[in-house]
Amino acid sequence: MTKVLIGIQARSTSQRLPGKALIKLYNKPVLSWVLNACLDSAGYINRRGEVQVIVAILCPYGDEIKKAYEKYVPIIEGDEFDVLSRYVDGAVKFKADYICRITGDCPFVTGFMITNHIFKTIGKRLDYLSNVDPEIRTELDGRDIEIMSFKALDWLNRTAQTEAEKEHVTVRLREVKPSHLKRGHFLNRLDMSDIKLSVDTQEELNEAESRIKNFFRKKNLAELDVGQENIFYV
Predict the structure, then answer these.
(1) Domains of the chain by start residue, with CATH
(2) What pTM did the predictor assign?
(3) Cβ atoms within 10 Å of 5's Cβ, excluding its own
């Protein structure tokens, strides 16, 4: 059976918004919004029985994230800035054929999107599929998804040279474009790349809070009971 590791990279030592992974967004930590989307995807895929998906959080050694989440999902600890090594450790530990890279500051990523990327990658036998390449990106900033084969991850681990390549994991793969790895990019029909919904500052956290509150307000309106029927706005 094909195995996929969804690895959420997160740390509580960010400089622009310290502790952002555990800061409450609406009614739960920022990282919990991301984790729930990943678990939704894993649950759906695992029920189909064709692919096994494991969700893990990848954090620096001793980060308080481990204590907060270790009872829910596996935790892979590693070097704070060598994020690439954390993904390699996780992939080896779970014997993953594919690795899904999700960043912990993207609370608007959805389980459906993650599932779609995973199935496209496996179905087309790609070594790398993402929606993040800045040259052709159409996805908004805050729904970043990358899927890579273990072959691609191993290549990155063997060839990464700079601190930036190890911290940002896949940048070398996009810049070098190795010919032996089959790559793809996920495009939307509309270009939304100028919209930013990831959370790096207090202002962006406030914006995310406002958007989520507004979503739930509209959701409640859309589900108002009228007699025996529900009203759904499309």
Answers:
(1) 2-225 (3.90.550.10)
(2) 0.92
(3) 28
